[in-house]
């Protein structure tokens, strides 16, 4: 069996004796005899060599696509080598939440830098140290907006299904009423939104670009929400931030998003990163860890976890959220990624995503598919065709290409990132053309 | 130390991407007014900046880390190697199931192993952390009562010794919280529990071993009282490291629980996440689990969508790479290694408690589980030295302080959890440091008030930080 216990059997026996126990059983004297289990019904432990083989065999059972045209909440962006180099440093990997500021300045300073970057990207005033992922970030944001008078959350049907399902679960818990705003031609129906807003509305939740990749009129949604006294929660695709009007410019009160595009591999869905920023007036309602700058007695710059009066370990059942562990190492990943990309590099990557998606859309249309919606899209778009989606995708899979996500029998949601080369896009289009014939 | 923004030099960059090889497309949608002020750096600058930051952090490998209730055990490297396999990192969560059989099997196998270890019948790996698991488990309880039309069960009973996340999670799930005081031994007061339960009881949340590190001997009676009142019992798995492979929550009478893979199953804490907080339940709650779960039929794995699912609590299936690490750990330890880890965690704690007893007051004078609580109340009264002073003084000796001022029911508390991965020498050295500090407290309290003296910064002004918050760099 494998073990990470340093003490040998004889050392353990000596320690038992010195502590005043005859054997291990005596340590568990408080446990009723009837409750003790004889042995677990699981396999015996293995050597590292065997474990490695076992895990490699499991990984080998997956098909790893190197050419991916699928997004829908998880995006295959380029990850600079420096990211893994930094994020594998053991001081970052193995530390706990930085409760002891004196020996955690490295982690605290990084969170402070990360918060600054999120504020820069979103244009908003305050960011937290992260939450679990983009979907739970939206749920937390909706909860921030609720109060005694306003208990309704309006969520656009164009928000991704993962986020909608998560917000629904959180609302089931809190009792917040969740109402869906219908879509119209692939975008949030603003007239329907205007009609649904009332003095009970706490917030309107939108996704930018939305689940179909289409760019929403967030300004309009924010105006409508604010006119009714409600907040606007905007969930953004991280890679759209360097290009599109910022959430702050659009009038969003809270911006959340899935930070995975900022340096995190696909990893079958996690760990990812929920980022969260808001206007200054909502600062004390923001959940999770927040790092602030202060100084020590000698006047030295210092960083600490702050505004803790919001949090569960102080307020218990009166806390706005129960969040404790968040995604600190993923926030570090994002910070290193953003530093490596820089403002120009990030914008360039985003531009390439957009340009390649539009090139793919043109080629697919030429190959016989049609765009489902007419509105402008970012780097994802939906096609429709008489040919079943499964057949098209199977042809692509034969060539080692992961095509778009089937949304229905004939609809496919495609995605491009900066990693998709022109040659690969052409191959996708050619393959589709063959299949459509 | 300078912030990364203060090291930025306009025009510096890395060469990461080739030029765009398709025609440039210009969006007609409105664009942002100004570029984000991200750092402009060379790779050397970045690399050195983060190495400098790492030098100002303290991980498990930097020294003894007896942070109570956090189970800061060693993070095995084979786990990291497994989680870094491209066959895991490169898999899209929405790939066709037949192309993700390895990932699905990781989820399926881990769930099955965790069910056996906990005595539960079904497990969801979706929750991303312990508190997230608590919330999920409470939604299961809510959905269960509601499904039976039993809508009057609106209260969750929480002992006053509970971790703050327990009442906070219950409140998020829409419950009213009934706090029950602990008895003098730190355990549940049965009479008070009996008085607290009733027709409005949705459930009880409990940690066992509890937050003072003691195994509640009355556990079967406790869960019986709650069940007889029609409530369900929720097990907070924060302290499972003490008893895994020895006794199972499912056998103690618990119906639903969460685990912390980042505590008990050796996955790293990452400076505050990503963790993983799987939720297990008995068969009668299975249909309420978050969607999707994983099922196996004839060696083929696929997603399943529980009939009365509470929905999702996050996107996709959980912190998958954390689950990969935990699976590697369970495979390594196996049937014999898991109880051995628990036994040695308990041994290390009792050994250290015994060695410290002549010098420090223990909050409870009985066999502890994986952790024990000391009270510095007398030291504070006699020498003016607080738990905080002791903690800060430990920093000067390269030891991460124990958990301070928790649980709330013990005054001037220091909670020590050595874990099983520490050697006897480490424990002995730590004991002599603790003893030395207590001698210093008697001789020269002032010196302890000044501590730490050797860390990158001295005690920070937290009041100033909260009074006028500076939460981002002022460019």
Written overview of the protein:
The complex is a heterodimer of chains A (437) and B (475). With 437 residues, chain A is α/β, with parallel strands linked by helices. Chain A has two domains: 67-76 and 343-436, Aspartate Aminotransferase, domain 1 (Alpha-Beta Complex), CATH 3.90.1150; 81-336, 3-Layer(aba) Sandwich (Aspartate Aminotransferase, domain 2). Helices cover 40% and strands 16% of the residues of chain A. Chain A has helices at residues 9-19, 24-27, 48-60, 81-87, 90-94, 105-122, 134-145, 161-174, 190-196, 218-227, 247-250, 312-315, 328-366, 389-398, 422-436; strands at residues 67-68, 126-127, 152-156, 177-181, 183-184, 187-188, 201-208, 231-237, 254-258, 274-278, 291-295, 301-305, 370-371, 380-384, 401-402, 405-406, 411-415. Chain A has a seven-stranded mixed beta sheet, with helices on both faces. Chain A has a four-stranded antiparallel beta sheet with strand order 13-14-17-16, with helices on one face. In chain A, strand 16 (405-406) and strand 17 (411-415) form a beta hairpin. The relative contact order of chain A is 0.14. Chain B has 475 residues and is of the alpha/beta class. In chain B, the strands form three sheets. Chain B has a seven-stranded mixed beta sheet with strand order 1-7-6-5-4-2-3, sandwiched between helices. In chain B, 37% of the residues lie in helices and 11% in strands. The model of chain B has no long low-confidence stretch (mean pLDDT 96). Chain B folds into two domains: 78-333, 3-Layer(aba) Sandwich (Aspartate Aminotransferase, domain 2), CATH 3.40.640.10; 335-450, Aspartate Aminotransferase, domain 1 (Alpha-Beta Complex). Chains A and B meet through helix 1, helix 2, helix 3, helix 4 and helix 5 of A and helix 1, helix 2, helix 3, helix 4 and helix 5 of B.
